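User: Hi! Is it possible to get a structure for several chains at once, not just one? Here's what I have:
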Amino acid sequence: MGASFPFLQPVSTPLPERAGQRAVRARWLWPAALLAFVLFWQFAKPVAKWAFVYPSAWELPAARWIGRATKWLQDEATFGLFTFTDLTRFVAAVIDLPYRAVLSLLSTGLLSGQGSSAVQQLPPLSWLAVLAIVALIGHHAGGLRLAALVTACFGFLVLFGQWTSAMVTLASIVVAVPIGVVVGLVLGLAAFRWPPFERALVPVLDLMQTIPVFAYLVPVLVFFGFGPTAAIVATLIYALPPMARVTILALRSVPSEIRDLGNMVGCSRRQMTWRVMIPSAKDSLMVGVNQVIMLSLNMVIIASMIGAGGLGFDVLAALRRLDIGAGLEAGLAIVALAVALDRLSQAYAEKAGQPAALAPSGTGLVARHPYLVAALAVVIVTFLAGLAVPAAQVFPEGWQVSTGAFWSEVVRWINVNFFDALEAIRNAILLNLLVPLKRLLGGLPWSGVVLMLALAGYRLGGLRLATLVGVLALLIAVTGQWEKATITVYLCGVSVVFAALIGIPLGILAAERERLWRWLQLVIDTLQTLPSFVYLMPVVMLFRVGDFTAMIAVVAYAVAPAIRYTVLGLQRVDPRVVEAGRAMGCTRLQILTKIKLKLALPEIMLGLNQTIMFALSMLVITALVGTRDLGQEVYIALTKADTGRGLIAGLSVAFIAIIADRLISAGARRIRERVS
Amino acid sequence: MASDQPKLVCRGIWKIFGAGGKGLLAPDGGRPSGADLRAAGAVGAVRDVNIEVHAGEIFVIMGLSGSGKSTLVRCLSRLIEPTAGDILFNGENLLAASEARMIEIRRHSMGMVFQHFALLPHLTVIGNVAFPLEIQGIDRARREERARRMIELVGLAGKEHVFPRELSGGQQQRVGIARSLAVEPELWFLDEPFSALDPLIRREMQDEFLRLQSVLKKTIVFITHDFDEAIRLADRIAIMKDGEIVQAGTPEDLVLSPATPYVAEFTRSVARAKVVKVASLMRGLDGAAPKISISDRAAVAEAAPLFANGADTLAVTDGEGRAVGLLDRAAVVDVMMRG
Ligand SMILES: Nc1ncnc2c1ncn2[C@@H]1O[C@H](COP(=O)(O)OP(=O)(O)OP(=O)(O)O)[C@@H](O)[C@H]1O
Ligand SMILES: [Mg+2]
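Assistant: Yes, the chains can be modeled jointly so their relative placement is included. Here is the combined structure:
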């Protein structure tokens, strides 16, 4: 799932300034509220059981409503000229046609006939052809070095026998990315032009990015059926919001003088958009394109749950078999694809930022389109070579390498030699920390928690925030998700605490050591491009399934923002303030604790916020290793194609994310006001 | 230079940013003070501005940062919709013009140069200069031909295929000027065109600008925050403060009779001899005119060197070269001594 919520943070709507002042400042409020809460929790259970465990009689049958609505959409909904089903069919066709074309080019070849009786009329591009074309693209985008890098990445796919799956995955990416970019661009443009549309769009984008992917896999599955088309639809839903957001931001950051210029020379609206605004925003827009590519790759594994096939399917299957070697190799293959596509798109983005070379002076076809001609030549030559030598068409199995056995051996070795030690660690943490905490949280009265959250919202951001937080928390209870939600909160909370305990000290260390920071950055970046499933596998191997495993995977995934924001916050502290501190005779420790950390606190809190978002998104995935939280609920709903159940649980996760985000952002804002 | 029919007239222009703009104008006869507006949570960026710009004149609007110059000039071209007022361009009310008519007017009759150049980063120099023509749908050969002429006019020949970011600030602004002239506008707006340049280049660009104007004779509204620049370039200057015009007149008027202490503050350091025109020092003709003559529109400072060879009086001539008066050495020395 990669950077699942990177865009959440700037989203939270700024509260009116006065709200902060209006918040009651009485000092006794919190202690009193806490005392009341504890007393209620300890003594009220016999009197008011309903306040502790939400009575099932009061539950809203929301899941059933959604199920019914889905059915209605499928069977009856109509927009007058066409029905909802027509719409989904149309979308499916728009995706399906190019997908088939690309797939036959990369993987299946040109087929005639149906199903298994199909006959291959023309072979697909051979591995040699794809390698050569990729190298050409690399050279075009960024010269020899990039060409070598991309060729190496694709070479890895060939050598490790991942080719067939990788081409299936590549085909879906090649189709998903342009559609995502175009639709995102159009949405962003519309939002830029019509403020009311933006006001409607932004909350939808927020929700699309906070709701766990699993949750909308279910309706996608229901409306589009199992298969690559559905997988691409899900990928689009996931990868498109950042593009829309980037578009809005990019257009808005075009200097107002440029806009004035457009008006002054008498541009019509269309000319304004296509001749002035979009070309001027091109650099930033390319960042959005890169995001779409990376997020599409992040979705590869999850999308394979609804029929994407390819590398994602291989990883998933290996995970289910607990075959670490196979899983790791397929996972690395995804990383190789990600690295290649990421670097290519970045190189093109950079190129877009620079003036294009002068048009070549030659007039011949070769002189004008050297890359195109070379690519055509490659295709023809490799096609002929493939006819003559089979190895040139399909990479022979005998030449392939596999390290699968080696990795399985490593894990086996560790388990044999360190089983007791690992087991001891696991049990110690489980028994002393995880289990008690889970009990504690599970035993809290839902009514009290909702009230306390609302109170926190009121103190931090006034009545509006209190209402938002209270209503969202209440909705979780009312839809009967409270118990599972507490498990999600507990797992997420523990993981975030660990991630912060690791990440913040590391960040403090790295902030002052240039070399360490550069090295750490590399590690963090790598960690974030890895598909999250890759974290899961070694942990499962070592610790088997369960909460502890989930926690480790979540910590490994969510530690990155904690480090990053700490470093950024500390580095952004005004050096003059530090100097003043030194002049006053502070020791290094005092400078750190009394000045730097204090000033960097808002940033660190935002880092924590991101850590929570990352943790939640990873947590849903850990459902695969047997947690019992909302993620599991979504996952079960997916296997049963139960839209209502999946959406309700997914929305609950989104609500938790929104509550945490709004509260922490409001807190950070208050601290920042106080500091500056 | 100025003819009688003003090219551009604006009457009672207001621009109020923030909530309830128009409503704020109504209550007290339509003249709320800056403080009134601020109290209502609005900004009075332009307040009751009346100006007339005549054909062929350089009209400079001068004011410090935030005084509302950019807002005013954008109201004049209707890039910003004024809250109240009338703008007449060649007698046509711009504020009543339809969107299509406005596009028409901007395409053919107006040009604008921007403080930060506003060059399109993805186009070459020639692409930028030809851009306004491209927008009008003029075919490639013709527009590039015209663009080439403009590039030559601003002294950038040979740089046609270079991208903006490869040019220095001064060169970039030359591109901006060439582009604004490509449509051969009647009315030329320049919003602090030289403010982003360093002093030497600025001086050079001012000379270049005067040279262009002596050839082109456009009607110009020129914005600056630099009083020296205003004095150097202007036929007439309007001084703006907090959205209002405090005084408008020729450089000479401002220097000799500043209307407020605020204006006096600016004019204090200006060398009078460079501003005061010969016409305002001359006395009537008596008898035969001396041989050495000077135009009545020249600055006093320009007359000084002509007294070097011992003459006591110069003849003063009008635009057609007729003698209209006499200039005494003593009067010139007097002005020069006062600084
Ligand atoms: N879009 C806007 N919304 C609100 N206030 C604005 C807006 N544009 C300008 N203002 C305010 O109007 C006033 C005049 O601004 P303007 O840009 O016209 O000043 P200026 O004289 O051009 O200054 P500078 O020399 O810095 O360019 C300023 O107080 C500015 O803050
Ligand atoms: Mg300005």
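The two ends of chain B are 28 Å apart (CA to CA). The mean pLDDT of chain B is 87.

User: Great, thank you!
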